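4.2 Preliminary Data

To establish feasibility before requesting continued support, the project team ran the inverse folding procedure on a target of 217 residues. The structure was first converted into the token representation described in Section 3, and no sequence information of any kind was made available to the design step. The complete token record follows.
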């Protein structure tokens, strides 16, 4: 049975091209939509798509809002973000909203298919953009995985506060101002937590905080 996909993007030519590509790969395009509002209008409760392939920048209802709506109303529907945005803030926000993967629009067709299959089968995709190590750390809680050991790590109040700020789009300098500490101290928190939690980079810290309930959407 063909896997059912819904495409959400306000660029019609790109969307049609994606539809043709995915149909050639053996997927069924259940429907197309130009934004989140149109997606919601076209959803059929009795025949939901297995995966929504979605842009972020869209009119009326963008990818962030749409992914969050799907997470709350249809958590069984997988979401894969396909965007031109490659900044940390967009990636973190989209993953917080419930996307299982995030790839760029200039990715090769082979990577797109690989991402779709990974999200459908495992719930997440190990991309180069969002390090596979980080995604594995927040999703694959196998008892033998090194990340499992971090679940019992005790954090200080300041470390917890820093993790909450790390999940925002503030710069490290702005985080220092919010916390009333020096930028050097913020750097120390960042480096210490990356080592303590076995995470790499700000995305890794933010996703660990989300996975472990330090922040909620």
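Position-by-position output of the design step:
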């Amino acid at each position: 049975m063909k896997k059912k996909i819904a495409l959400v993007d306000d660029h019609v030519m790109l969307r049609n091209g994606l539809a043709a590509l995915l149909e050639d790969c053996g997927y069924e395009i259940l429907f197309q939509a130009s934004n989140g509002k149109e997606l919601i209008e076209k959803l059929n409760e009795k025949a939901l798509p297995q995966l929504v392939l979605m842009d972020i920048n869209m009119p009326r209802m963008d990818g962030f809002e749409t992914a969050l709506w799907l997470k709350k109303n249809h958590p069984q529907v997988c979401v894969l973000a396909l965007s031109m945005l490659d900044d940390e803030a967009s990636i973190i926000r989209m993953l917080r909203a419930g996307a299982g993967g995030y790839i760029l629009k200039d990715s090769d067709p082979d990577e797109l298919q690989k991402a779709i299959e990974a999200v459908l089968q495992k719930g997440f995709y190990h991309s180069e953009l969002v390090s596979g190590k980080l995604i594995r750390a927040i999703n694959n809680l196998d008892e033998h995985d090194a990340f499992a050991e971090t679940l019992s790590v005790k954090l200080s109040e300041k470390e917890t506060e820093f993790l909450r700020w790390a999940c925002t789009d503030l710069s490290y300098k702005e985080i220092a101002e919010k916390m009333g500490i020096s930028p050097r101290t913020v750097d120390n928190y960042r480096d210490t937590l990356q080592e303590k939690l076995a995470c790499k980079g700000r995305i890794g810290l933010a996703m660990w905080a989300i996975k472990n309930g330090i922040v909620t959407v």
